[in-house]
Amino acid sequence: MAFRVPVQKRLFHILTAFITTFATVSYFAMAVGDGIGENKIVIKHDNGSLPATYTHVFRQVYWARYVDWSVTTPLLLLDLAFLAGLSGANILVAVVADVIMILTGLFAAFTVNEGPKWGWYAMACIAYLIVVYQLAVNGRGVVTSKDKKTATFFSAIAGFTLILWTIYPIIWGIADGSRRIGVDAEIVGYAVLDILAKPIFGFWLLFTHDSLSNSTSIDGFWAHGLSKDGALRVGDDDE
Hints:
mainly alpha, two-stranded antiparallel ribbon
């Protein structure tokens, strides 16, 4: 699809290609048995006057998924931020909060003790709320300065993304967190969400954005590299 448009308008195509490429690498790693760790959890059972008994639970943690999310979710945020026209400061806050959200989720997945586990989870949820604020409040605020079609499209695709992203921590809470569902159900749940949040999101973004009258166009270094006048010269004599 990128070759149908000039290089000046390929920003979203390239970001989306990176997203699906990193996701493909991650899923291939998990499919062949790489990128998988194990968390050993010891559960103590008090039996009154009888000696306490212990249950050892071994649960797989697909850490390759967190590596994938730490790369692809910031790229997804860039797609949405550039579509809305967010400022650099707001983009930086959203991306950093997003990375914190993923890392604290990974720490929680490998934490044995229940208290610290849910502490990491709470931090991840707080970071996620910052991301939501940047998109739902700041994003919608700045996109209103664009044409109505772009504003409507941003509201739809950003809302779609935030709904999906809200389901992720719910699955984590009943899977890794409370262990109420097994690893197989967790894998299926995350896979469905990833398909919707990455390739489906990407096709929707590209097909709709290409039809917008004021689709993003970037010239300068992005399209032409360093021009002769602006090129860096190393070792030239000024004399």
